[in-house]
Structure formats: structure tokens, C-alpha cells
Structure prediction request, 468 residues.
Amino acid sequence: MFASLDFSIVLQAIPAILQGLLYSLELTVVAMVGGVILGTLLALCRLSSNAYLGFAAKVYVDLMRSIPLLMMILWFFLLVPLMTGVRMGPENSALITFTLFQAAFYSEIMRAGIQSIAKGQINAGFALGMTYSQTMANVILPQAFRNMLPVLLTQTFVLFQDTSLVYAVGARDLLWAAKTVGINNGRTVEMYIFVSLIYFVICFSLSMFVKYMNKRIAIIR
Amino acid sequence: MNNYHWNWGIFFQTIQNGDVTYLTWIIQALGWTIAISLVAWVIALALGSLFGTLRTVPNRGLALLGHAWVEFFRNVPILMQLFIWYFVVPEMLPHDLSMWVKQMDPQISGFIFSVIALGLFTSARVAEQVRAGIQSLSRGQRAAGLAIGFTTFQTYRYVLLPMAFRIIIPPLTSEFMNAFKNSGVAYSVGVWELVFVSNQMVEETGGQVIESLIVPTILYIICSYTANRVMYFIEKRSRVPGLIVAK
Prediction:
């Protein structure tokens, strides 16, 4: 049982683990930044007065939200080389999949954020002679972002956990590193325990930070 | 894309290691997916309700227990948790039990551990919703229950929980749908559910990617949509009269 565990493998594994962790974090940050930008555009499309644009955005968002991420990862990884002939490797493929997928979730958050702003704010922007895009960029979106910051961060925390699913296409993330080092040295048990702890510490700190943000924002109101 | 060879006939071909067609295999896979999701959901609902409620009780120790449960199961990715259950926990068991687990049919042991992992992971999320539901009630509700002589247990049973559960049905709906979507991780421990089968089909058919992936994808969409409708039906039937959502 416990007696046979040997955690000295953990020390040897640190370079490989760090490399995996770096990719997991890279994937999180790229998908978050790309997802928020794309998601905000999608939210603006949904709220626009152009019915076609709104419909297209709604179809995109609903479709992404009803397909499991694991299936999306497989779809993108297998279909893109088939359609374009470009082989991009599991890591880059996952970067794009995650950005496209997360955009749908961020767009719902941004939509809620924009809709929570009083209508008078748009009118005020127009009354000052701003155009639609100026009003959005300078008046509405900064407030929407601020209101939705805790929710955006919570989504990012879900995103970070989901990065482990790239395992399905063999991208070299944190979980992949743990598995590979573990199998090569016959120490999977130790590696899985160690990497679970890493995930736990990162996610727990992030959720504490979100709680702290929530409190800060609650006081501002 | 122009030189992609469509071949819908593959659904009626026999699989490599068996005597059923791919279509039958996919339908069996759907059965596994539904079984994992539903059993996990029952576990999640039961444990999530318990620990979510505990987080709001006056007893400090119990509240801490509820809190620990949520943080523990919420902060590690589902796939990682499944690996812990499947690869680590059997090693920690007493020798005889460990042997027994390892000699089980891999389909069955994979199913059991997937259900446990997904059930506990989802229970932490359900617990968060239950706690939020209870805390959204006005303080007077609890006070009123205690004032008419209910014990704490009775206050929860007859006053707080019936209200809280009806309020949190919408967020629970999305957790229910997530249970279906997350059930795909079971492929990694070799359960023949939809993700596993579609992956296998891509390989065995020599790259009929679109045909292999589209049917499972549609089945997933149907599953989560059905889950959504069922919950919506319950939501409509159980609306609290007098709240803004009630018509």
C-alpha cells in the first residue's frame, strides 16, 4: 500500500511537469484572451438590430454549447487536416479549438453583462454625439467587463480544468506529462497524486481570488 | 475536401473485433453514455444536496465538512479525478479487494469508476447551487420555521429545502446537461461509450472522420436537449407562485 510509494520520482519529473504545465497555462491564456474578444463580438452580433447577424451568432453559440468539448477537440483535430491539408499538430489544433469553443461561453457572459447596463447609458452616449461603436467601446463595454469580471474568471477556471481534455488528441499538457513520466518509470500512482495536487493548488487559489474579487465588486456597488 | 470519399455504408459494416455492425455499436455506446450520465447524476444530486445543505447549517463542524467536500471535488479536473479513481485508488485498497477490482471485467470497472468520478465531481457543483438556493431565501424563513417550534431538521425539511430546490432548477438544468457532456471522459478508461466508439470508428474505417463523428455528436445534442426539456417540464410544474418567474 502506502509503503511502496516512492515520491522521489517527483523531483526527477519536475522539468517535464513544468513543460506540461506551461502548455496548459498557455492554452488557458490564449483561449481566454481570444475567447473574450471573439465572445464580445458574438455578443454584440446577438444584440445588434441586424436579424441575420443575431441569428448566425445564436446558432453558433447554441451549437458550441450543446456539443461536448471532447467531441469538438476530436472534430477539429481530425477534420482540419482533411479539409485544408494542413497538419498543425495536436497542440496548435487545441489552441484554436479552445478559443472557438470558449468564445461561445464568454459571449453568453458578455451578453448578460451588456444587458445589465441601463439603457440610458446608450442614449447618453448617443446624446454626446458618439457613434454606436464609440458608445460601445467607451461607455458600455468597460462597465460590462467590470460587472462580469468574477463570472469571466469563473469561466476561465472551468477552462483551465478543461485543458486536461486535450489528452484525447495527445497534446503535451500537464496530464500528458504526468502520464508519460509515470508510465516510463512505472510510477503512475505517485505522478497522478502529485499532478492532482498541482491542479488543486492552482484551481483553489484561482477560486479564492474570484471570491475576493466578488467582495471587492460588491462593495463598489 | 473535394477528394473526401463519403461512405455512409460503413454503418452497416461489421466492426473489427466483434460481429455487430457499427450502427449497433453506436447504439450500444449511447446506452453506456446514458447509463453513466444518469447514475452519476443520481449520485451527484443526492450527495450535492446533502453537502450543499450542510454548508448552511448552524453547526460549524458540519458546515466546514460541506465546504471541504466542495473544494476538494471542484478543484481537480474531471479527467484527473477519473485517473485517480481508476489508477490510484485500487492500489490503495487492501490486497484482496485490490485484486478483485483488477480482475473485474474492464467494461464494468471502467463504468463503476467513471460513475463515481463523474458523480462526485458533479456533486460539488450541485452542492454550490443548493447552498446558493438556501442562502437566497430571506432570513425570516428560517426564523419563522424555528419560531413555530420546528427543529432545525424540520425547518430544512418543510420550509427551506422545498423553496430552495424550486428556485435552483435552472442552474441544475445546466449541470444535468453537463453530466451528459462530461460523461465522454469515460472513454479514457476504456468504456465503450460514444467518444470511445467514434474514435475507434475513425481508426478502423481508415479515416471516415465525418461519418464517424457526426452521429455521436448528434446523439449528444439530442441527449442534452432531452435533459433540458425534462428539467424545463419539472421547472414549470414546480414554480413558486408569487415570484417573478411565475406567470
In short: The first helix of chain A runs from residue 8 to 47. The two ends of chain A are 54 Å apart (CA to CA). Chain A has a mean pLDDT of 89.
